[in-house]
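Posting for a labmate who doesn't have an account.
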Amino acid sequence: MKKYLIFLIVLISFSGYSQKYVDELNEGNYIDYSSNTLCLSFQSYKVEGKFISEMGKDFGRYLLVQDKINQDLCWVIRPYGTSSFYGLEILNGSFEDVLNEFKKGRGHKKVKILFSNISSTSEMKEFSFISETSMEMKKDRLKRMEEIRLLKLKIEEQEKGIEESKKIVEQNFQSEIVKSGLVGTYKIKILKHSNYDYQSFNTYGKIIVTEIGVTIEIDIPSMKLLRSVFIMESSKPLDGKLSCRVVNGGGDILVLILNKKDNIGAISELSGKNSTTTTFILVK
């Protein structure tokens, strides 16, 4: 009597918290403990219909279901918690005979066994049920993971495109810097620096242009030594314009304009919103 009472309490508790469980391995398989319906496929067999929950002679809980279309097809299922089954029996016969023989626990005399592993003591690996809520969460998680994967691919493609663009810019720049004839060392005389006129001071300096950047040495405190590397995207060697990023010395950006034809040029130092321009002539 005590065992029956325990089973009844468990059954009531289970019914109160029942819900739909979906098979991770086959979404077509489900057990809905709220409506007492299920749909299961196993090997070449399939059953769909309402089930009843019965206690077996071993005091274990079993689900008995009759297929709603082929009413001679009945399943007896021994649940493994809510995640799978210990085993099941697939039977051919009337549901009444299946239920009577189950309750008597005397084996099957009136029904035919199509498949049985009901006495198994381990979990069946052919099923893996999770709650419908967990399945939706899993789908959402997989969807987000796929979205992240696609986003990463897109970013990688963009980065690849950027790298390819950088290579093209670099190749074009290197070709133009050679064609421009700007690479070399130039002696210069300062004409004007900021608002100061240097024409009467005989202030000289040196500009070195390489394939990498520009170095400037001028006998002016703020321009004693400036080293810089090319900003290839904004440089136009064929027009005599070289934009550089300062790596040693004052300022952030340096723009050098060289007009070798007229032997004149200018240097602009940019630091934030401030700029200083120095004009010069080339000295042979």
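Reply:
Got it, the structure tokens are right above this. The CA atoms of residues 44 and 115 lie 11 Å apart.
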